[in-house]
Amino acid sequence: MKDFFWAINFLTTVPTGKKWCEREPKTGNVVFWFPIIGLLMGFMLTFVYIPATRFFPHLVADAIILIIYIVITGGFHLDGFADTCDGIFGGSTREKRLGIMRDSQIGSYGALCLICTVGLKYACLVSIDPNAVAGLSFISDHKTISDLNPLYLYACEKGKVLLVMCALGRWSQILGAALSNYARDEGGTGKIIIENVKLKHAILSALIPGIVIFLFCGIKGIFIFSTVFFVVIFLVSYMKKKIGGMTGDTLGALNEVSELIVLLSFLVI
Fold first, then answer.
1. Which of 41, 205, 216, 254 could link 176 by a cystine bridge, Cβ 3.0 to 4.6 Å?
2. Are 215 and 193 in contact (CB under 8 A)?
3. Structure pTM?
4. Is 215 within a domain?
5. Residue 17: inside a domain, yes or no?
6. Which residues span the domain enclosing 243?
7. Higher confidence at residue 208 or residue 22?
8. Is 47 a domain residue?
9. pLDDT-derived band of residue 212, with 50, 70 and 90 as boundaries?
10. What does DSSP assign to residue 12?
């Protein structure tokens, strides 16, 4: 459980105590927990989402959940996404791109990409049809679904979307780390993950979220998983060309893009 708490401390703002930060983690064990922590985030958001839909309009409830999600993660991956966009689009050489990504100040590319990404996530959450999501599940009785209170149906089925989004976002980081090397010559956030994660870790860590997604989304879940898989491969290949590998920032970018891909996938299936 020590690796579990280290992973929670690394991925979220949930307080776990300083002692978990001070120890050297076993990378293979730590990354196994990443998608599971994503599932726990999804359950937490769903738990808040159900009462939120009773007291507020759906548009407001979706916004509240998105804000709470950002608070839980501390905007950790969004920050990496913004730095990645600044570096990739603002630098003309590998060295300049890495230098810009190292800068703690956000640039115009990062700000624009953040606005577009968060805005598109919100638009997707608002647009996803809960009835369509309910129809995908292997564990739902369609007659029972039709008899549910509309507010309860809305919250529970949107909760499934949040579970898949949070789990696959974290798993995409493991896959990205397994497929690449660390881009910087010096150390940095994410180095311990990228240098020690292998493909076997990505496969093992996919088992539990894969089962959950299959139960909730049926065959269409395979489509969502596969889409994220190929997008990650493409982005890792792109990052290798631009900066020679992956960094902690680009892992955060993978998380954000993968979550967006999940939400968009729910709109086309």
1. 254
2. no
3. 0.90
4. yes
5. no
6. 28-268
7. 208
8. yes
9. confident
10. -
